[in-house]
Design brief:
Elements: H1 10-21, H2 25-38, E1 43-49, E2 55-60, H3 67-72, H4 100-106, E3 109-115, E4 122-128, E5 131-138, E6 143-149, H5 156-160, H6 165-182, E7 187-192, E8 195-200, H7 205-213, E9 221-227, E10 232-238, E11 250-254, E12 257-258, H8 262-271, E13 284-289, E14 295-296, E15 307-308, H9 311-328, H10 379-392, E16 416-419, E17 423-428, E18 431-436, H11 437-454, E19 460-470, H12 473-488, E20 492-495, E21 500-507, H13 517-532, H14 538-550, H15 560-571, E22 586-590, H16 591-599
Parallel strand pairs: 1-7, 11-13
Antiparallel strand pairs: 1-2, 2-6, 3-4, 3-6, 4-5, 7-8, 9-10, 10-13, 11-12, 14-15, 16-17, 17-18, 18-22, 19-21, 20-21
This protein binds adenosine-5'-diphosphate and magnesium ion.
Length: 601
């Protein structure tokens, strides 16, 4: 019997790949726009005709291609963007698979004109269904123009499956919006044949959203911003009262790449819970930046679904930042859970928001009453507590939990229970508040140390006797590297010799717990070693290491007073929900959840 296995001809392999990459005209739009952005264009023009079925053309003023590259660009796995496997983990460009142009050229008639700035003349290439038809020099401006005509001309079955022009055009708009939102610095225009549909100039994100979606958006956007050690979040949400009943306005970008994540989407829904109608969708334009090695964009041919190393962490950072923005922009509802069903937005702009006061019933005894006390704090009150912080500024910045002589009247009156020496529990109107004591304290200390670090002169507590410590050589080198940061946070550390240091002061108010000073510094070093490689921000890494090491660990007994200080400190912090490393600090278990929990066998 003769051999039956043979390699597929390239043109067939390309068509198979095209089945994944090119599903409809909008897929071509996406790939061409991304290539233009990758090429460093400052202006990109998209022209479609017959909803892209007859023509999709993208013109950019980017780098252009050399004659050889222009020919190569249509080969499979031809890419200028990666050349080693490791590059896959550090992708900053949109493209990298090198199959878009080859795939497109296998199912359409493609005409390319391109010129690099160094070349006098450009090159003009025509390819139809993977076949090179012609190639000649031409005069053209610097940059690239790719026209894709008669999509699926050679696969009638695929062509038949295309939807109505309206439907295909909607998909094209989606891609156009995503590209234009992801790169506000680049000017974009879209034409239907000769008719200009939208043109937007180089601008910032805010202006870009308004440019694309209309002037009315000027009043609709609420900024969102958050930065943890590993994740930066930026963007806008649409005020809840403008939420639409269609999913249209949900734009989530990770490292400037539009992505879909049902997990993140759900947590955003939850963040808007109670603020929008149950059949409306929250609107958002959110940009997340994190280390490219934290995500895997390679799993999906069109790259709109990506794999996260820690999707939950990212989702909870987003949700908490969004809730905070909603709170800060007075969009939080005051819902009377008892009676009302309509929402009552605090929208009056002329009215200064009063810091909410926490009314409590000091006589409350859970065993005497069957009914919940009216004034126990509710979920919204958690937000209120934060707003109190924003309105009045931080009051007590000492992260120490040692009770002060004169505690402010504000301190809360709730009763706290410690569970397993690790968690603080408290009853709330809407359920059960559970706080991880260690993470709460990390958050409090982190904020405090960051603030100290920002101050010109951090306050220190002089030691009675300076302590000298000696370290292993490699640790000593590291200590020399981070000692400036430590000193800015209140340590006074000086290097005595190659391996020895003297410590003469500690940050004010820190509790050594049972650590020796040498032990403390060694464990800060250890902490830093294990985390610093992963983190971009050196200063924050040092501070996070300190916060971790100085925080009250799980397993430590806390008395009532300490628990109160911990919880009120937490809710005055910059982000009560998320620890500096992204872990969730507290959770509220609703009474519904409790009911479900208790009814399980
Ligand atoms: P990828 O984008 O994954 O690298 P493509 O098939 O989309 O693969 O493109 C192949 C190559 O062609 C790119 O790597 C790039 O070098 C070149 N190219 C494509 N479009 C452009 C453009 N608009 N400007 C400059 N070079 C381009
Ligand atoms: Mg590409």
């Amino acid at each position: 019997m003769s051999d039956i296995i043979s390699l597929l001809p390239d043109s067939v392999a390309n068509q198979i790949a095209a089945g994944e990459v090119v599903q409809r005209p909008s897929s071509v739009v996406k790939e061409l726009l991304e290539n233009a952005v990758d090429a460093g264009a400052s202006k990109i023009t998209l022209i479609v005709s017959n909803a892209g079925k007859s023509l999709i053309q993208v013109i950019d003023d980017g780098l252009g291609m050399s004659v050889n590259d222009a020919r190569m660009a249509f080969e499979r796995h031809a890419t200028s963007k990666i050349n080693k496997a490791e590059d896959l983990f550090a992708i900053h460009s949109y493209g990298f698979r090198g199959e878009a142009l080859a795939s497109i050229a296998s199912v359409a008639r493609v005409e390319l004109k391109t010129r690099e700035s160094e070349s006098e003349a450009g090159i003009h290439i025509i390819i139809e269904g993977s076949k090179h038809i012609s190639q000649e020099m031409c005069s053209t401006s610097v940059g690239t123009s790719i026209a894709v005509k008669d999509l699926f001309f050679n696969i009638p079955a695929r062509r038949q499956f295309l939807k109505s022009n309206n439907a295909e055009m909607r998909h094209i708009w989606d891609e156009f919006y995503r590209a234009a939102l992801a790169s506000p610095k680049i000017a974009f225009e879209i034409f239907d044949d000769k008719k200009l549909l939208i043109g937007v100039r180089s601008s910032n994100l805010h202006q870009r959203i308004i440019g694309l979606f209309g002037k009315a958006y000027q009043q609709r956007l609420i900024p969102v911003k958050e930065e943890t050690v590993d994740v930066q979040l930026n963007g806008y949400i649409i005020k809840p009262e403008h939420a639409k009943k269609t999913r249209g306005e949900q734009y989530l970008f990770i490292n400037d790449r539009y992505i879909r994540s049902s997990y993140i989407n759900n947590s955003l829904r939850n963040a808007f819970e109670g603020l929008i109608h149950t059949d409306a969708f929250p609107g958002y334009y959110l940009f997340i930046n994190l280390d490219p090695s934290e995500i895997d964009i390679n799993i999906h041919p069109t790259k709109t679904e990506i794999k996260f190393r820690d999707e939950r962490m990212v989702a909870s950072i987003i949700a908490s930042a969004v809730r905070r923005s909603l709170g800060l922009h007075h969009a939080m509802p005051s819902i009377d859970f008892e009676s009302e069903t309509t929402l009552n937005f605090k929208q009056d702009k002329n009215k200064e928001i009063k810091p909410p006061t926490i009314k409590v019933n000091p006589d409350y005894n859970p065993f005497k009453n069957k009914i919940q006390p009216v004034d126990a704090f509710s979920r919204d009150e958690l937000v209120d507590r934060q707003m109190e912080f924003y309105n009045d500024g931080p009051k007590d910045s000492s992260g120490s939990l040692i009770p002060e002589e004169s505690r402010s009247e504000k301190a809360s009156y709730e009763t706290y229970i410690q569970i397993a020496n690790s968690f603080i529990a408290s009853s709330m109107k809407s359920g059960l508040l559970l706080v991880n004591q260690n993470l709460a304290h990390q958050r409090i200390l982190f904020d405090e140390l960051i603030q100290k670090n920002d101050d010109v002169q951090a306050s220190s507590e002089q030691l009675m006797f300076p302590e000298s410590i000696s370290l292993a050589r490699s640790d000593a080198e590291l200590m020399a590297e981070i000692s400036d940061e430590l000193n800015e946070s209140g340590f006074v550390i000086s290097q005595l010799g190659p391996d020895t240091f003297s410590v003469s002061a500690l940050p004010h108010g820190i509790d050594l717990q049972n650590n020796s000073i040498a032990g403390l510094l060694e464990s800060i070093l250890e902490e830093f070693k294990s985390s610093a490689k992963l983190r971009k921000d050196f200063r924050k890494s040092v501070i996070l290491s300190m916060a971790r090491k100085l925080s009250i660990p799980e397993g430590r007994v806390l008395n009532q007073e300490m628990m109160q200080r911990m919880v009120s400190g937490l809710f005055q912090s910059s982000n009560p929900e998320i620890a500096p490393d992204g872990r969730r600090i507290f959770r509220i278990i609703s009474s519904d959840e409790l009911t479900t929990l208790l009814s399980k066998d």
